[in-house]
Amino acid sequence: MNLFETVAYAADAGAPPADAGLINLLFLGGFVLIFYFLLWRPQSKRRKEHQSLMAGLAKGDEVVTAGGIVGLVNKVEDDFVKIQVAGNMELRVQKSAVSATLPKGTLKSLDDA
């Protein structure tokens, strides 16, 4: 009896199904489509909308920043915007921090409330 020699007896394994590679490719393709439609496409759409928002900022626009500050755009520079938040108070914020523009008259209605 030899203690260091192991003998494995295995039954003949059946051949893998012929369509296994095709099924794996279909699953991979399905995951890629799910990733594209649920993650990549909506994020790209939001990025394009925000870039057009930043490019379209003009003097007199009423905006909300990412921090929740509401104000009126007084000056648009290359990367920054001066926002009037009170009578004589202006803040300089990055264009990328502007999250939305408001309809005209929103600031007036907020002041009245």
Structure in words:
With 113 residues, the protein is α+β, with helices and mostly antiparallel strands. The chain has two domains: 18-55; 58-112, SH3 type barrels (Roll). It is 38% helix and 23% strand. The protein has two helices and five strands. It has a five-stranded antiparallel beta sheet with strand order 4-3-2-1-5. Strand 2 and strand 3 (80-84) form a beta hairpin. The longest helix has 36 residues, at 20-55. The protein is rod-shaped and about 95 Å long. The model has no long low-confidence stretch (mean pLDDT 86).
Please give the CATH architecture of the largest domain. Answer: Roll
**In angstroms, what separates the terminal alpha carbons?**
96 Å
User: Which strand order spans the largest sheet, edge to edge or round the barrel?
Assistant: 4-3-2-1-5
Low-confidence stretches: none
CATH topology of the largest domain: SH3 type barrels
**The CATH C-level class name of the largest domain:** Mainly Beta
Characterize the largest beta sheet: strand count, sense, and whether it forms a barrel: 5 strands, antiparallel
Helix amount: 25-40%
Q: Report the average pLDDT across residues.
A: 86
**Whole-number tally of structural domains:** 2
The helix count comes to 2
> What is the gyration radius calculated from CA atoms?
30 Å
Roughly what fraction of the amino acids lie in strands?
15-25%
Structural class by sheet pairing and helices: alpha+beta
Overall geometry comes to rod-shaped
Overall number of strands? 5
N-to-C order of helices and strands: HEEEEEH
